[in-house]
Every structure is written in C-alpha cells, then in structure tokens.
Amino acid sequence: MPDALDATPYDALLLLSFGGPEGPDDVVPFLENVTRGRGIPQERLKEVGRHYFRFGGVSPINAQNRALLDALRKDFADHGLDLPVYWGNRNWAPYLTDTLREMAADGRRRVLVLATSAYASYSGCRQYRENLHDALAALENEGLRPLAVDKLRHYFNHPGFLEPVIDGVTEALAGLPEDVRDGAHIAFSTHSIPTSAADTSGPAEGHGEGGAYVRQHLDVARTVTEAVRERTGVEHPWRLVYQSRSGAPRIPWLEPDICDHLQELHDAAVPAVVIAPIGFVSDHMEVLYDLDTEARAKAEELGLPMRRSATPGDDPRFAAAIRELVLERAATERGQEVARCALGALGASHDLCPAGCCPARAPRPAAAGADSVYA
Questions:
Q1: Cα(196)–Cα(209) distance, rounded to whole angstroms?
Q2: What per-residue confidence (pLDDT) applies to 2?
Q3: Do the two domains 12-155+314-333 and 159-308 of this chain adopt the same fold?
Q4: 112 contacts 10 by C-beta, under 8 angstroms
Q5: CA–CA separation, 127 and 134 (whole Å)
Q6: Across the strands, what pairs with 203?
Q7: Is 203 exposed, middle or buried (0-12, 13-18, 19+ CB in 10 A)?
Q8: pLDDT tens, residue by residue, 253-312
Q9: How far apart are alpha carbons 45 and 47 in whole angstroms?
Q10: Is it true that domain 159-308 has CATH number 3.90.226.10?
C-alpha cells in the first residue's frame, strides 16, 4: 500500500451530475424536473421523452456515474487516498439535497465537488453551483449545519481527460475503410447552448464571441487534432459543431448542427467523418440518441462513412485525473504551491468562480464561488 495522500482540509468528494430516468414510468416526471418553471405542457414532454422510450425509458447516465464512482473509489484506494465519494443529481435520484443531508449526518464538514461537465457555461457550472446553494439552504432550514463546499476547476484540458479522447479519435479513424481514412474530417461535437449564454460564459473579462465555452472547446479540438497528427502522420481537417438544441427557434443557438454539418461534408465530397463528442464526459443520452442514432442515420442516408469516438467515461486515466485535481486543490487550500496539469494553449482554469462568471438570466445565489454565502 502506498503512503497515504493528504486531502486535508477536505473530508469527502461529491460527484454532482444531471441524473436521468431509470424506467418508463420515470421519464415524464424526470422531464418535469428538468423543465420546471418553463410551463411546458405534458404532451410536449411525452414527445421529448421518445428519446428515452427508445432505450426502454432508461438513461445511461446513472449507470455511467456508478461506473465512474467505482473507478474513483478504486483509484483512491489503490493510491492510499482516504476520501469517501458520494453521488448526488440535479434532476433525479439520488437527489443532491438528500446526498448532502446524508453527508452532514455522516459528519462531513468540507466537501469538494466534481461536476460531470468539463467546461465553463451556465448549465455546466453556474447552475450546479445554484443547485448547491439551494440544497445547502434547505439543510439550514432543517436546522442542520450546512457543509462548506468547493468545486473542482474545469478539467477540459487535463491530460487525464484528453488522453482518452485522443485515443478514441485515433481508434475511430483506424476503424474507417483504408481508402477514405486519410481524407476523413473530424467533427468535434458538443452541446449547443444559446449564443447569449455562450457569450457570457466564463469570467466577465472574457465575455463575448462565444466566451469561455467556445474558446475551451476550440482549444481541445486543436490539441486533439495535433496529437492525432503526431500519432498518425496525417493532419485531418476539423470543425467544432453542435448538437442537442432544445430552445425556441427564435432564440439564436450555437451552430452548425451536427446533421447540417454532415450534409455540408457530403456536398463537399468529403470521403468520411469521425464524430468526436468532446463536450461529454460519458456516453449518455445526447451521445446515444443525437449522435449514435440521428447523426448515424443521416450519415447512412448520405452514404458518408462515419465513426464515433469514445468519451472518457470511467477510463482509469480520468479517475486518476480527478485524484490529481483533488490533491491539487487540497494543497492549494493548505497554502502550498502546486504544479497544475493542462494541455493546449489556455492553461489551468481558476479554482474559484469569480462574481459575474457564467451569469443566469435572472440573478440567483450560488455556492462554491467568490460570491457564495456558504464558505
């Protein structure tokens, strides 16, 4: 057994995720949770729910989170890091408030939070911080002592996140027919968001022109493409594209859509494509439906050879990256200088989200940031 690693001052890690239904009866209640306050009729929710019903009403995200939990616990134990790992969701059981209540009952006092979103954006960062605030306020209203929570920095460019992505793209290219492989285009895909949300993502001084959300994805795409070139000797053309749009048509969202992009590739006589879902930690519903179902059907309709690369999921290198991020943040909180791992041109992200970072349309309090009331 290696020497114990020091996570002081933290006494737990919380995996914070989106959640998803685990059976047909869960689908509409889950979607009601996701869309609460938007006044969307149940008929529309049932229409949206067809994506889940296609897979038996089960979202893969919960099973993937369980696999990641197992990978984290194994990695921590193998390296002598005595830090319990909990799991809470935004929209389905285990709900975040219930998990924080459990942590408080277990005597936890200072918690690090790992969100299953690697990039800066309102829905991928600030909203999770708002969820944390609401859950901590609920505990306080119950007479429980709220926990102190800190959120791990964005890890989109950590080697342990990117190396599995690079492997996945390389393997997907190798899976294409040899006669079209070298001419293949790489479509780096991520979740589309409103352009207004993209422009205000990240710290306020970097707002505009897609903000941190687009800059971070572009940096990942360049880094992956260069790594693939070094491995294969081929420099593949690429583009950042978007998927999973859910907003009203009158509201501008990031484009191009992945299926529109496939049509453009076909029209330009591109011989093949690899779709690399760099915006996603694991193969959850947006990957299985929007890419493996809809985009694949579009590619087949066009006669365009296509492969989809893997996400990090529960790759041991990703689990090791989380351990490194935990120890990095713990050492920083103890006043020690640490080396921060990051690939690409942007460097390591901030530890503490500043005021004005990824703002909501209507101001709401958030935990785990410079403007938090729970510290």
A1: 10
A2: 43
A3: yes
A4: yes
A5: 10
A6: none
A7: middle
A8: 999 999 999 999 999 999 999 999 999 999 999 999 999 999 999 999 999 999 999 999
A9: 5
A10: no
Cα-to-chain-centroid distance, residue 296:
22
Q: Would you list the domain boundaries of the chain?
A: 12-155+314-333, 159-308
The alpha carbon torsion through 159, 162, 166, 169 (nearest 10 deg) reads: 170
Distance (Å, whole) CA 169 – CA 337: 35
Residue 162: Cβ-neighbour burial (10 angstroms; 0-12, 13-18, 19+): buried
Question: Which phi and psi (to 5°) does residue 319 adopt?
Answer: -60, -40
Give, to the nearest 10 degrees, the angle between helix 211-232 and helix 159-174: 50
In the numeric block, which tokens belong to residue 25?
């009866």
Assigned architecture for domain 12-155+314-333: 3-Layer(aba) Sandwich (3.40)
The candidate with the shortest Cα–Cα distance to 87, out of 107, 61, 126, is: 61
Contact 337, 135 (CB under 8 A): no
pLDDT of residue 43: 75
Q: Distance of CA 355 to CAs 103, 154, 221, 369, Å? A: 27, 16, 28, 7
